[in-house]
What does this fold into?
Amino acid sequence: MRLMDKEEKIAELLKGQVTLTTHRVRYERKIGGDPCLTSIMLEDLCWCDMVYRSNFILILLGIMVSIISVVVGFIYSYAFTGILLGLIFIVAYFSGRGSILALASAAGKMKFEVKGVGFQDIVDFIDQVEDAKNRRYLDR
It folds into this structure.
């Protein structure tokens, strides 16, 4: 990323994919091998959001299938298959959950999964974004 005049990096998230500077927030990634870039100037930034997503139905299915397999499976000798299927649902639940961070302007938004980043690190990044935006207004 080439910095503008008097622009400085403040913070990075996701191993440098998301960069906060004194002037903008930029998200660089590759989708299917092709580079993609989204950038929002701090003056245009109007919204920050972090949500936790999980597919709770998967854990319920996993538990239900396992219990039913144990109860019914011993009669018909297929308990192992049902328990294995239940474990697959449970593993799918734990591997599919995570947080999503979204930053938006009036014209669009950048939305990215922040797997492996701690809650407090995400909150600190949002605080830094808000602080940088506030400083842009105060320095005018």
About this structure: The chain has two domains: 9-50+101-138, 56-96. The chain has a mean pLDDT of 86.
